[in-house]
Amino acid sequence: MASPSAALYNTDFQHAIARNKRNTVVLFVVLLAIGAAAGYVLGWGVAILELIWNLPAEEVERLTAATVLLDLFGPPRPDALAGAAILSGSGLVWGLITLASGENILASFAGARPADLENPVERQFIDVVEEMAIAAGVPPPRPMVIDTSALNAFASGYSPQRAMITATSGILSLCTREELQGVIGHEMGHVADYDVRYTTVVAAMAGVLVLLAHFLGDVLQWTFGWGGVMPYRSRGRDSEGASGVRIALTLVVLVLLAIVLVVAPLAARIVQMAISRQREYLADASSAKLTRNPIGLIHALERLARSDTDIARKNSPVAALCIAEPKNESFSGLLSTHPPIPDRIARLRNLGGAAIGGEASEPPSVEPSRHENSHGGPWGPSAETQAAPAAEPPSAANKGPWG
Amino acid sequence: MSMGLWIALGLVVLVAIVAIGIYNGLVAGRQEVRNAWSQIEIQLKRRHDLIPNLVNAVRDALQIEKSQLTAVIEARNQAISANTPEQSMKAENALSGALRGLFALVESYPHLRSQENVTGLMEELTTTENKISFARQHYNDAVQAQNIRVASFPGVLFAHAFGFSAETMFEVPEAERAAVEAVPEVKLS
């Protein structure tokens, strides 16, 4: 683990922006390659199954699992090429659509609607988004709301000029203004350093891979299901041995395809989370820098740790964008996109939460962030920054289980 | 041409390219500082416009506390009529203090807090106060970034020649800082 203050030293938006733009292109290509590889194997599977069931009986009896599987690495079959073209092509098209329409796709995926100025809670959300945009010096992103009691928020979009910040109605009604500032500050960090472009593209692409893999899995099942389609397709009178070989080989190929259908979305998710954890620390540091008050985010994270953050299953492509890992994910331990919340809180405390903890855990004042400080202050490379997490004030320590 | 001449020419071109990059960076930094300053002014203007609305909305309920209302109105009028930046800064800070007092007062009247137009105005003024403070913070961030650019190598070699100098930070006077720390205890829940 990097030293606690490293995240803050790296809160260099210019470098983060350049790195994110580069990574977006690289990962776009990597995901297309994953899609092409998966499509190739799936197309090959379709072709080889056709072959197994259409060859004359005497030729089938000479086939073994090894010869069939080696065929995958033989001269490309047209169906395999078609599969690769379909999967990577639709990935490319989807990626370009995402780039063109940016923020909208993911937000509508998640069932978000524009925040309502007439609703006091959402009015406060709109205001806090504007406040944080001013602090970051970027145009205000469009505030969106998802109606659910789960607690979560995410940012999406192509650039700071065309970004959205989406929050659940649960987090809006439960968090104090101070906590909300911390959460929105975190999301504004993602917006200001172009995390949004990277995560939006990658999330959309990973999402389309998962969807297509599911879809093709269904098609395969339908075409080659055990419902009698295959025996019907076999030509002529099969000997006992021939049909046994056909069924065995079909099983081998189907197992291979099943593995691909599981591995491809998994690989896409690994790519997705590859850099995502580190940028969460960075966004936390940005939040502390923008609000000059890490306590708000610390309290909000403590709230999130105690509650349900799962927006909905259909939103899994959005996971990497959220303020906290959506729970109820089957691979949450291995493939989480977010660092553990206690770890994030410990780092935030090191960024000055410990130094001003006692004062800020009082009810939020009119201007909770009025620390006009431009010389680094508690988040600069000062003595406090280096302080060990043990320096927490008692008031903050007994708020959560990580005291 | 000789080899040495080519090398000299290459160096000149290189220096020119570096100088152009530095100049563009300095211009962008100065623009950012100006934008940040105008954002402060936008929010201050917004505050001046909102205050009469809030005062009108709570005037009847706060008959006994008239002094607080007059203090806010007077501070606002002084802030508007300020001529120099120093006067303006001083008046705005006084207005911040007066507003905080009024906010605390409104919070202590439950029936006022439950009036929709009052809560709406309070939210609008609260966010404007926050925006003013965040705009100042961003202005100082922008000034700091620009001053580092002007004073550090290699910018320092060109900044003076290009007519760039250090910008001035927005300072919060000691009195104001004390007022912030002595913010009245307000129970919101």
What does this structure look like?
The complex is a heterodimer of chains A (403) and B (189). By secondary structure, chain A is mainly alpha-helical. Chain A contains 17 helices and four strands. Chain A has a four-stranded mixed sheet, sandwiched between helices. In chain A, helix 2 (13-54) packs antiparallel against helix 12. The longest helix of chain A is centred in the N-terminal third of the chain and has 42 residues, at 13-54. The model of chain A is unreliable at 1-11, 328-335 and 353-403 (pLDDT under 50). Chain B is 79% helix and 0% strand. Chain B has helices at residues 3-59, 66-81, 85-107, 110-113, 116-151, 155-159, 174-181. In chain B, helix 1 runs antiparallel to helix 5 (116-151) and helix 2 runs antiparallel to helix 3. Chain B starts with a helix and ends in an 8-residue tail after the last helix. Chains A and B meet through helix 7 of A and helix 1, helix 3 and helix 5 of B.
Largest sheet of chain B: none
What does the overall shape of chain B look like? rod-shaped
Q: Kindly state the mean pLDDT of chain A as a whole number?
A: 71
The largest contact between protein chains, plus residue counts on each side, is: A-B, 28 and 40 residues
Structural class of chain B: mainly alpha
In total, how many beta strands of chain A? 4
Strand share of the residues of chain A?
5-15%
Strand content of chain B: under 5%
Helix content of chain B: over 70%
Number of helices of chain B: 7
- Mean pLDDT across every amino acid position of chain B: 82
Q: Oligomeric form of this entry?
A: heterodimer
Envelope shape of chain A: elongated
Key features of this structure:
heterodimer; A: 403 residues; mainly alpha; 4-stranded mixed β-sheet; disordered N terminus; disordered C terminus; B: 189 residues; rod-shaped
